[in-house]
Amino acid sequence: MQRAAPILVTGSAVLGAFLFSAGGPVTAELLLATLFVVGFVGLSASRPAFSVIGLVAWVPIQTTVLSYLYHLGVPGSLARNVGYLKELWAIGLAIAVLRSGALRRRFDALDWLVVLYVGIASVYLFLPLAAPGALGGVPWSGRVNAWRLLALAVVVFFCARRLSFSAAVMSRLFVIVAVITLILTGFALWESIDANGFNDFLVNTIGLPAFKADLFDSPFPDPTYVLLASGDNAFNYTRVGSLFNNPLTLGFFMLIPFGLALERIGGRRMWQLAAVVGGASLYTIFLTVTRSAVVGAGVAVLLVAAFQASRASRQRLRLFVVLGIALALLLPVAGHSATVGRFEGLFNPVHRDDSSQEHVETTPAAFAAALRTPLGRGLGANTSTGTRFGVSTSITSDNSYIETANEIGMVPAVLFVAALLMLLRRLRERAQEIGAAASLAGGLWLAGSGLAVAGLFLQTWYDLTTSLAFWVLAGVALSDRAEPEEPDYVDAKELMTSAY
């Protein structure tokens, strides 16, 4: 396996050059790009920490950065191809696993669930090559897009879990997530206070409409106003999306720093930063007016309140005081007519907006469709890929797990749910230990539980920004740690026991 790693790097680069040249002449620019790919993947493979830090730091901001570069005059092909950095990092992690010989270690149940799930998804990716028109007849580009949404994050998790990361890397990842959270919250506040000004920033400074229309053939209905405003029935509001320009993505993503912050507030290290991040992420979740994200945050709060018996009394008191202050400050936002009205609309037709009506209607119909086609409709039948590529067999379900069942079948959907539940269990078990890995695992257990519940109401795991961040962090938290760790917080009973 170790000897195969450099061959895989070189072979992938040569194959990529051929594919990108579309069978035409290999230009000097293409050769330079190939050399860059070889060097970048080689660096990622030799430094796995670079890959995981890059994924966590880059993916949330990539659209904003690339859109701005395109607006400044960077060629569209270059701006678009830089977006594939996350795939290169993933390849680097895979090669690092091959080089380390980690695949020789015995697979546990979670490994096998992940391998089976990704394997079936890959069969749905390649089978139409042998039988054109099979599984919905979705073109290759559409199937690749759908495979990335379904499997890329899980593959990254599998690779990261079989590598080693130091306590310093784990702590650095929390700081990176904290910085990104505060940046997103700052722009979210701007959007909530001055929607027109923020819209002007996205349209004229970042150039988001032109970037989406020119490079991804996804034009906005009104390129002069790109914010998501709603005026259904009695409620008028703007659903804040910050730099994501998507309230669903923002709400889902903010569950990750919220969970990490809840864990660290009760610890000894960086609890002040965690308190700020926790408040900022929770406030932003409410600004998105995304009901499933609000429910997910509620799940995380209930879990952290229920499992604080192992903490020292001072840490428990600090956590509850911070939560109490945060909830008191959030009451004006939580009681806003838009937030309350969207929840009420699920049960009261008088206050039901179009979104609530879709929630009520689409999921039962999608579940019935999954029962009729237990093998799925093929890659591309999900809402995101179906809309982007015009897939006629796509079906919308406001449930991430039913969405998977409709796409690649009931069995892979069950495998994914089983893998997710086992992952949450392993995170909870790791959180019982001490040190940076335990702190990271505990926060991800809270965030993952919230995301798992949110997935019952929206396509949480189809959001690549959120799923990549969560699964790669989970892989690091469950990895083989490379060096001894100091406890992030001290359990009073363990401290007394260790004295003897």
Please outline what is shown here.
71% of the residues lie in helices and 2% in strands.
Q: Which bin fits the share of residues in helices?
A: over 70%
Average pLDDT level: 83
> Beta-strand level of the residues, as a percent range?
under 5%
Nearest-angstrom radius of gyration?
23 Å
Number of helices: 23
Structural class determined from secondary elements:
mainly alpha
Spans of at least 5 consecutive residues with low confidence: 17-24, 231-235, 482-500
Judging from the principal axes of the Cα atoms, what is the shape? globular
Strand order of the largest sheet: 1-4
| SSE string, helices as H and strands as E | HHHHHHHHEHHHEEHHHHHHHHHHHEH
Biggest sheet: strands, sense, closure? 2 strands, parallel
- Give the termini separation: 47 Å
How many beta strands in the DSSP annotation?
4
Give a written overview of the molecule.
This protein is mainly α and 500 residues long. The protein is 71% helix and 2% strand. It is built from 23 helices and four strands. It has helices spanning 4-20, 28-46, 48-58, 62-72, 76-82, 85-100, 109-130, 140-161, 167-193, 195-206, 208-216, 247-265, 271-288, 291-306, 313-334, 337-344, 354-372, 383-389, 400-408, 410-431, 436-454, 464-477, 492-498, and strands spanning 164-165, 228-230, 237-239, 480-481. A hairpin with a 6-residue loop joins strand 2 and strand 3 (237-239). Helix 9 packs across helix 13. Mean pLDDT is 83; it is low at 17-24, 231-235 and 482-500.
